[in-house]
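Why does residue order matter? Because the sequence determines the fold. Keep that principle in mind as you read this record.
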Amino acid sequence: MDTEAKLALVSDQMHLEPAEETGVAGRVVAPCGFAPDELRNVVESGAASSALEAKKNSLGLYDAAMPNGKRMTMLKTLLTSACERDCYYCPFRAKRNYRRATFKPEEMAQAFHQMFDAGMAQGLFLSSGVAGGGVRTQDRLIATAEILRRKLNYTGYLHLKIMPGAEREQVFRAMQLADRISINLEAPNANRLTALAPHKNFAEELLRPLQWVEEIRKSQPARLGWNGRWPSTVTQFVVGAVGENDVEILSTSAYLIQQLRLTRTYYSAFSPVPDTPFDNHAPENPWREHRLYQASFLLRDYQFEMEEMPFNRDGNLPLEVDPKMAWARAHLTEHPTEVNRAERNELLRIPGIGPKGADAILSARRRGHLHDWRDLEKLGIAAARAAPFVLLDGKRPPHQLSLWPA
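Structure:
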């Protein structure tokens, strides 16, 4: 089997793995398998965007938004799609009738580096099915990264997955090679994980490595990390497969964000995969995934606490309105915030005002009072969202703006 065919097999389901934010490619590239004439025909037919995106995705090439805001084309792939675990939702589970492929570390490193040299990919997200145990699989992932960094002199973006059951020294070595590392918790607690992936241990195999990362950050100098800094850390939850509610998911997310300093908690709305034990389960509403992201940003960037989240009686967030707006309607409608006196944490609770907007308001107040909603707009504030919940010099802004934008 040639490299492209193997790459297509191992990357087949990588759209299910949030690595960095992905979407429509920012620029057109000609991936392997597209001859120049074929590419020209696709462009001239008017189907360039969808055809190229489908071709790129089939090989694991996705548009990614990086932590610094820049965009790049990233290869999201696996060392092997063979897996000895039998997670009930996963397309790579051991008992699924599915064609597998495996790369050796040298082979994967060379394949990616050729794509990098050709300008097809600028970053790599590398994961793997578990084959031969978590420790052996992690050794192979680390070996691939070492070949890229030390032998091929690759200095670009690398996101390396930590395998269930990896050892502390392996986690430390991964932190010395990667810009970002991750291990997927998949579920918010041990009971839910048992229903989702019965042969994984939540505390020891999944949560403990994330704790090691933070322990290493605190105890070891950052100069030991790649390019003199420790990598960022993320995780992922499968949402809606085993009956967990949003309180469970966000309670674990809050711990990860606030205590272990995870950069992102990703949420993947469950979608059934054929020939798995959950193939008859209903897919989760994607709006639930969206609301969880919004709530996690409130926990991470807006100084919200779990007790302030607008959960309903079932422990879930409302789907019809974003959680910040729901909180504001309950708390600020009758008691609006005076923009000219509010502290930063109070400003952050106003819809339409984010961290940059709050800082801009504080800076503008040092030069004088804000008197009009147009003063807010000049600072980049979404005044239409903020208007129902603020006072300017003791007066409400005029209601020419929509009262309840969601």
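Residues 23-48, 400-405 have pLDDT under 50 and may be disordered.
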